[in-house]
Amino acid sequence: MPQETSCHDTPEGPASRPDTPRRRALLSLAAVAGAASLAGGPGAAAQGPPDPTARQDGVAALGRSGGGLLRPQRNQHREVLDISGLWRFQLDPQEEGEAQGWFRALPAPRMIPVPCSWNDLFDDARDYLGLAWYLTEVWAPSGWRGQRVFLRVGSANYAAKIWVNGTVVAEHLGGHLPFVAEIGTQLAWDRPNTVAITVENKQLLGRVPPGPGSGGGGVAGVLGGYPATTYDFFPYAGLHRQVWLYSVPAAAYIEDVTVVTTIEGADGVVKVRVDASGDYAGRGRARLNDIEADLDFRGGTAEATLRLPSARFWRPGDPHLYPLTVTLIEGQRAIDAYSLDIGVRTVAVQGDQLLLNGQPIKLTGFGKHEDFPLSGRGLNLPMWVRDYELLRWVGANSYRTTHYPYAEEAMELADRLGVLVINEIPAVGLNFEDPAEATAQRLTQATQQIRELIARDKNHPSTIMWNVANEPMGGPLLGAGPPVPEAVAAGMRFFRQMYDEARRLDPTRPVTLVGVQGGPLEWHGLFDVVCINRYYGWYTQAGRLDEGAQTLARELDDLHRRFGKPIVMTEFGTDTLPGVHSQPPEMWTEEYEVEFLRRYLDVAAERPFMAGMQMWNFADFKTGQGTSRAAGMNFKGAFTRDRRPKMAAHFLRSRWAGG
């Protein structure tokens, strides 16, 4: 598997696009033809956008994936060693560690858990976002000799660099997604190996998400929080997911698996593509339940189609998964294998409806955060299990991964529990009034992020949509003034390329953008589903719930007339201090939150074209310090940060679960 680095080619300029009706018809056709998505991988960009007349079944549309991001697994051919745990840790505010050889030993370390954010653990690191060092020692298992050995970091927020025994083996830019380096030649077998990782989360203008510009950028100029960001959540830093060593067979191994499902009557049709290392030209086999198909590799790639008679189609309420195993075979002997659970389902857009398995689906749920006391944004499996239990209790069927990709374990739970996910890259805080150079840098990074996200999550049936940005700005915040024409045009160029890249990588899922209140409407015309965040009755028309509901109703009708696409409201809500009450309802009270939600849900229920309502937020979450964020918290949760229900949670349960 190739090493991921921070160096990526700049995407090509916008391709010619079919007109909107034809493009949407192609999406509907392609989505019906395939439910799980296609892989991109970091090496796929050079192929350019797909030919609309070419095969769109998700298998042949891509070519080689460039390696993929398969989650490591242990079987008779592969081994995995989780080297997470307590590591040595040291801040490096002067950035002197590399010159002084800290990758061999830290001069004044303290212990830190991996995975975890460092900000909630140490008093002197709460607001620290600069360079920090992690270091551990690990023995390479002697049984791995002769195998190919890789190191995989699940998430390092934001920029990371890795040394193994003093040699740089990888660099990666952008948190929340995994990266991999082959380290076999750096390993020692007769002594412990030193692994050192630097991480920094500097808020820089050209990054995604960007740091504040001279005018603050994004929401920062209004919220004015500390640490300064362009987004309204705390900029947690650190190694947020596991660090693994894993081995695969040296002769040939499975680099990537792509699964696309089709529904034909009562049958499920599963198309499988397997990419093997090098130019493997041997044989293989795909097995699904008791159904098998041969794999004939040419140039390292093979495809097979398996039919499931009278299949159980994956959906909320019946999230049935089928076990798929692919194998490489030499003579009569298997030399490598990889297994995953798949769901047979399709996603499509038809007119103003979102279809799951050919039937209209309405999303109920939330925006969320990976956020919890002490662990910050670090992987917290008890939190995730509890969150899914509360989603079930409240009657929600979906959420959006606001505002970054979530842990792979979260996606696996969504598959098993039947939760629909809008999967989002970290492109929050984009402002197209910023300098063109910064926009170009962001396009490169956002393109890398959508490639990595699709490569990682393409086979999850729970992922039903890709989102390329949250609340991008093209003028004054919340409609305080009209959008700036030059900024709108810059955004059109940016998002046209992002849409084309996402659809090239995966022609089977809708692609969307989440628009900010008062933001440019033109950008929605590029995408397949209109997703919007609205706060009439809170940030504007404050305290005037009926007036806010009337404004919302008018805007939804206008959006439907203009675009004729499914509309999902991906954010709506109010800050609510737990335990604060009033009659009649007043802002910041639990009663006000309930009445706000009631009006928004009522407005949506009167409009059949509304494809979903996702409240902001599932639970209260940490932000920077500022005058608009009491106690450094955003209190818009239906649940408190420690997952106690507010009145809003009980109200939503009465609407969504009938409880």
What does this structure look like?
By secondary structure, this protein is α+β, with helices and mostly antiparallel strands. Helices cover 20% and strands 27% of the residues. It contains 9 helices and 32 strands. A hairpin with a 2-residue loop joins strand 7 and strand 8 (167-173). Helix 5 (436-457) runs parallel beside helix 6 (485-505) and helix 8 runs parallel beside helix 9.
Write down the Rg: 24 Å
Q: What spatial form do the alpha-carbon principal axes imply? A: globular
Give the structural class. alpha+beta
Task: Work out the helicity level.
Answer: 10-25%
Total number of beta strands: 32
Strand order of the largest sheet: 23-24-25-26-27-28-29-30
On the 0 to 100 scale, the average pLDDT is 90
What portion of residues belong to β-strands? 25-35%
